[in-house]
Every structure is written in C-alpha cells, then in structure tokens.
Amino acid sequence: MRIVFALISGALFGIGLCVSGMTNTLKVQGWLDIFGAWDPTLAFVMGGAILPMAVAWRMLKNQSPQPAIAQTTSSTALFDRQFVIGSVLFGAGWGIAGLCPGPAIASLGFGGIGGVVFLLAMAAGMLITPRIKARLTAAAPI
To answer: What b/e sequence results for 68-89 when a residue is b if at least 16 CB atoms lie within 10 Å of its CB, and e otherwise?
Structure first.
C-alpha cells in the first residue's frame, strides 16, 4: 500500500512541477533575480504549497505524531550547523542551476541535457559528501 501512495504522490508532485513551471530553469532563476528581471509567478506556486500545509499543520497540531503510512517519523526540531550549511549549499545550487532535485527528476521526462548534468552532479555530491564529512569530523568535530 505504501508503494501505491508513493507512486500517486510522486506522480502528482511531478505533474505539479511541470504545470507550475518549476522545471523551467529560466523561470526559477527569474524568481530568484529580485533586483533584475524578477518573475513573481512562482510566488503563487509557493503560496499554493505553503497555505494548504499551514492549514494541515494547524489541524494536526493536537494529533498523534505517528505518520499515517510510515512506521516512524525522522524529523528533528533543532537547527544545527550541518543543517544551515546544507541549506545554504542547496539554495546556492538552486540559484545557479535553476533546478533542485524534484524538478530535475521531473525534467528528465521531456529531455534536455541540463537535467541530466544536474542529476549526475547531484549524485556525485551525494557520494562525495560522506567522505568529506568523515575527514572533517576526524580533523575537528562538527
């Protein structure tokens, strides 16, 4: 049953990314260019995601923290150094490439070398990061 829910939500997510223009790197970079040719259309995409989630969080505020489909939840409430560094790197990469992982995967469906290059670079980063982290931790604890 979990696979069915994952397939449905993944398909809806991918369709939403394509329909909203989040797979168009120029539209994303236009949204991030607040001092230049700013394109505000993605504000509606973000609002379309944030507003329903705000309502859902409010409705579930007093509910059990147990997920409906998963066995456990793996969220943490604290911001640590790794979280902040990762967020900064994610944002910088999003601004430079105009893609983040979800839209990059969705963009594979309609071709284009940019998404493939992005995904290869992302995979390389995911493989290299644990090694870099181990070396940094050995040198000085994070």
So the answer is: eeeeeeeeeeeeeeeeeeeeee
Report the pLDDT value the prediction gives residue 128, as an integer from 0 to 100.
Answer: 92
Kindly write down the DSSP assignment for every residue of 66-91, as one continuous string: S-SSSS-----S---HHHHHHHHHHH
Q: What is the mean pLDDT of each run of 10 residues along the chain (142 residues)?
A: 88 85 82 85 84 85 70 68 84 82 80 81 89 81 58
DSSP assigned state of 111: -
Q: Amino acid identity, residue 21?
A: G
Instruction: Tell me how far apart the alpha carbons of residues 31 and 21 are, in angstroms, rounded to a whole number.
Output: 11
Among the listed residues 26, 33, 3, 39, the one whose alpha carbon sits nearest the alpha carbon of residue 103: 26
Q: Which among 97, 40, 7, 129 is positioned nearest to 107, based on CA atoms?
A: 97
As given in the structure block, the two tokens for residue 54 are 């705000």
Classify residue 99 as exposed, middle or buried by CB count within 10 Å of its CB (0-12, 13-18, 19+): buried
